[in-house]
Amino acid sequence: MEQTIEQFNQAKSKIVGDIKTVIADGEDLLKSAANASGAGIAVAREKMDDTLCGAKKMPFDASRPAVDKARRTATTANHYVHGNPWIVIGIAVAASALIGFMAAKR
Fold first, then answer.
1. d(Cα 21, Cα 92) in Å, to the nearest integer?
2. pTM, two decimal places
3. Phi-psi map region of 36: left, alpha, beta (phi>0 left; psi -120 to 50 alpha)
4. Got the DSSP string for 66-85?
5. What would the pLDDT profile of 28-46 be if each residue is shown by its tens digit?
6. In 20-43, which positions are buried (b, 16+ CB within 10 angstroms) versus exposed (e)?
C-alpha cells in the first residue's frame, strides 16, 4: 500500500512538473508569436506539441499501478468468494443485521 502511495506521489510530482513545462512552453509560443518570425513560431509550436503529448499520456501512466493492484485485489476476492460461498454469505448476513440494528436505534 505504501509503495502504491509513493508511486502515486511521484507521478503527481511529475505531472505538476509537466504542467509547469506546458505553461513555460506556452509563454515561449506567445513570445515567438509576438516577434512574428515564422521559424520561431514553428519551433515553439513543435516543442509545445511534444510537451502536450507527454502531459496527456502521464495521467494514464500514473494510474496504471493503482489499477493493476485493484484488479489483483478483485481477482483474489473473486477466488475467495467462489471457494468459500457460505462464509461470505454469513459475513454479509451479519453485516446486514448489524447495520439494521444500528439504523433501528435511531
1. 50
2. 0.43
3. left
4. HHHHHHHHHHHHHHHHHH-H
5. 766 666 665 666 667 766 7
6. ebeeebeebbeebeeeeeeebeee
Which residue type occupies 57?
K
The single residue listed with the C-alpha cell 510537451 is 51
Question: Do residues 48 and 25 make contact, with C-beta atoms less than 8 angstroms apart?
Answer: yes
List pLDDT tens digits, range 68-101: 888 888 999 999 999 999 999 999 999 999 999 9
Task: Quote the cell numbers at residue 102.
Answer: 444500528
Q: Where are the domains of the chain?
A: 2-105
Distance separating alpha carbons of residues 61 and 55, to the nearest angstrom: 10
54 by DSSP, 3-state: which? helix
